[in-house]
Specification:
The protein is an alpha+beta fold. The chain is built from 11 helices and 15 strands. It starts with a helix and ends with a helix.
Length: about 375
Amino acid sequence: MKKRNLLTFAIIIMMALIGCESDNSTSKTDYNTSVKGTIVGGSGQSVIFEMLRSNGVDQLDTITLNETGSFEFGANVKGQGFYRVRLTQNNFVVLILSEGETITFSSNASALEQTFTVSGSPETERLKQFNLFVNKLYLSNDSLAKASKIHQANRDVNAYMAASQFQQGLGMKRDAFIRNFVDENPGSLASLAAVENLNSDIDYQYYKKVADALKSKIPNSPYFQNLNSRVVELGKMAVGSVAPDITMATPEGGTLSLSELRGNVVLIDFWASWCRPCRAENPNVVRTYNQYHSKGFDVFSVSLDKSPDAWRRAILQDGLVWPNHVSDLRHWQSAAAKLYNVKGIPQTYLIDKEGVILAKNLRGPALEEKLAEIFGS
């Protein structure tokens, strides 16, 4: 998928690209919302009008553009919704329509999204503002990524590090823009599209802010309902929540519960013997354990292994000296992995002495910095 579509449709991540023909016999005057437009250079092409639902795409109308490229579409909008005007699968513009609006649209057939203007739709204007800013950052990031590969191939460490640091700066700039964008009007479908570009582990509060604001405006909308369902699930494992207890078998055949480590700051580490990134990270975990264990730091390792022998062998090979190792040997069907919504490993949760989640996915220097903040260096 192209990067511009990641932005234009964070909101259609969940939307399967399906279509169904609607009854086009309804007169344009029977609709409560209309889109009148011109697509320059589109004479003779078919322009398609679609509604983007939470679980698919409904094709509402198709018009063959005349010599002037003009068209008019109508829709019965309930509250607010995402709609799309497109020529081809990858040449389209997404509009946010509100009930009762009369929208005027114009663009060039060669690149609808990059050239369109719209009046009569404040929400679409907001979405356009968001996409213009973030797309520029993605273009810059693409250039930096290519430069980084060249520097890496040339073994130019200083240039590679400089490019990588600049990339990180762009990411921070993007996230700051999105947070400000959401803060301006959290109860906006444009803000819903924007917030999907934030890391929910770090910015859960922004997902919740948008869900709470949309609840007061469009509580019956499937857009709100789907986001709210996600927020409820995310909230169970959000920073500030109490980590669910885990009780599983140890390599020796006994059982151990996470709650038995209360009173310590604990790193819950999901890993497996077959996971190369996990094995590469293990020396960092061992180092931090040795440094901070005497101050009240512990590790609770949950393995997604299937073979008990491979699990025990990896513990010995990697020198995982803490005694807190558990697994149900069910691989990705691990009950603990499902409980903690683990989709990939290594994945970690750092919890405080009362079991409250302090941070997620801290590795290497980031974990050391957090522990130094808690315990002192």
